[in-house]
Amino acid sequence: MESWRRSPKTFLALGLPPTAWLLLFFLIPIGIVWAFSFGEKVGIVDIDITGTFANYDRAFEAVYLQIMVKSLIMAGLTTLVCIAVGFPVAFLITFAPARWKPWLLLLIILPFWTNLLIRTYAMIAVLRTNNGFLNMGLEAIWDAADAVTGLFGLAALGAFQPWDILYSDAAVLIGMVYVFLPFAVLPLYSTLERLDTNFLEASLDLGAGHLKTFFSIVVPLAGPGIASAVIITFIPALGSFLQPDLLGGTDSQLIANVIERQFLSANDWPFGGALSFLLMYITFIAIAARAFLTRPNERRGSLPA
Amino acid sequence: MKRIIAPLDYSRRWSLRWVIVATTVFLYAPILILIAFSFSESRRLVKIEGFTLKWYEKAMNNDQLALAFANSLTIALINTIVATALGALAAVLLWRFRFPGKPVYEGATALPIIVPEICMGVALYVFFARVGWPSDWIWPFNLSAIAAAHIAFSFPFVAMIVRARLANFNRELEESAKDLGASEWQVLHDVVIPFMKPGLIAGALLAFTLSLDDFVITFFTSGPNTVTFPIKIYSMVRFSVTPEVNAASTMLIVITLVLTALALWMQNRDKPGAEA
User: Which of B34, B92, B151 lies closest to A14 in CB terms?
Assistant: First the structure.
């Protein structure tokens, strides 16, 4: 790496275009919203930047705080499920025969190439109460169970009651897991792929079982990958807009939906600005926490003990 | 080198195989159901009955849908070119130079990746509204706001991919080229760029699909006359759900798949046998 002073012309030629774009179409717009978040509405379109914290105070009122907490819980649950399902999937791909690997990876990546909106919309036909495929499956299982209990002369289970899952928090959660699962698998795979299998063999040779090897060797070594998977899933999940919008009911709105409403229907930019900055601060805290937590793991990973 | 030996042959374990089978069903069933409905005779999306192509015919004859589709492809194309160029520049800059405030600069370029889409969407909404960005230019210039927004969020992804590729670059190659008399430009053109190429292709591919796929940021930057394909599908979903939506969705899925397959094929064709 050389100092920029050695060839300032090249440095500027390389740096200027991306920097200008970033400034104009990202940093300045974000800066405007930040300034507005300390402002007051003084008309339909006019906003006075008075330095007030009133918008942030309002964001901590019970009704909004509740939505914020709920968004965190939903994103956390989504992440948990995605990692729990994604880890075995990534693990299997890592140890699959070389000629299968690209195909298995493709299997996970393909839905990722499918439009997010379409995938969310696809969930409606699965989750709805009448003729939804989830309920049809549940009904089949119910009927089978009913037949079995009948066979043993036990009381019948009664008629099947479809599960009103669409337009509920559960539907939003399923939709979020559905959409974000490939996000979790890819970073897990890329870490596991680089895993030194000698450690695993040594552990197995020395008498540790597969589970013990998994939890004391694989998981710690894959620490940074797990952290990446958590972040890469949690952040977009926290800002989920489409899943609550299309799959949720009126009471399953998350923070992104509230922000959208401030800008597109309530026309309260200062309050919307405050909410979107709070969402950004939470995101930054999550990233900082990740950097803080993975540091010791990385050290452990690089030094074979 | 064969590194898989029997005790580590986890892919042979049925317990793990079931996980991947269940995951595959979970990931694919909803999309397949959606596609199946696009061929259903019934206007109501209740039961899949019969087989018809009339919804495709209807979707193809839908002028608004066709325009939305043309808009999406145009934006994605512009985005791919500009974002790949900007991303490559930023990657080379960060790879090559030491400069004061570099960590801050790195953080700033990563911001569009980490900031929630909704925050970036509303920021651009406010920005374009406040600066009075013209939206009444003739096509395709009326798409400039959306394209600018897409470039802003996709070039950092390209930069990240290209930089990861450059991190594996053996600088001795560069030095030997210089020792052998190559000029700065020759080094860049004959040594560095060929090495970057897989990263550039992967980055361009990602930029294209990020743009084609984007809903949230486009939702806030599109106007009544600048509707993209996902935005059009969204309004169709909101207003009247007919199998036409499914037909349009299926077309988008197929197009994305074909383009991706094509790009992967091109990427593999460039590879000289061994893994890059």
Answer: B92
Q: What residues of A are in contact with residue B37 (Cβ under 8 Å)?
A: 125
Residue-wise pLDDT for A49-89, tens only, equals: 888 999 999 999 999 999 999 999 999 999 999 999 999 89
Of A110, A276, A284, the CB nearest to B122: A276
Q: Which residue has the higher pLDDT, B166 or B255?
A: B166
B159 domain residue, yes or no: yes
Decide: B201 and B162 in contact? Cβ < 8 Å.
no
Q: Are B78 and B121 part of one and the same domain?
A: yes
The residue of chain A nearest to residue B247, with distances taken between CA atoms, is A118
Burial A145-157 (b: 16+ CB within 10 A, else e): ebeeeeeeeeeee
Q: How many domains does chain B have?
A: 2
ipTM of the complex: 0.86
CA of A154 to nearest chain B CA: how many angstroms apart?
A: 32
The CATH number given to whatever domain includes residue A191 is 1.10.3720.10
Q: What's the confidence (pLDDT) of residue B88?
A: 95
How confident is the model over B172-220, as pLDDT tens digits?
A: 888 898 889 888 788 888 888 898 888 898 889 889 888 988 999 999 9
Per-residue DSSP letters for B196-226? HHHHHHHHHHHHHHHHHH--HHHHHH--TT-
Q: Are residues B11 and B99 in the same domain?
A: no
B262 within a domain of the structure (yes/no):
no
Angle at A231 between CA A229 and CA A237, to 5 degrees: 100
Q: Does B201 contact A at CB distance below 8 Å?
A: no
The rounded percent of chain A whose pLDDT value lies above 90 is: 45
Report the number of distinct structural domains present in chain A.
1
The enclosing domain of B174 has a CATH number of 1.10.3720.10
Note the pLDDT tens digit of each residue in B1-21.
444 445 666 766 777 788 888
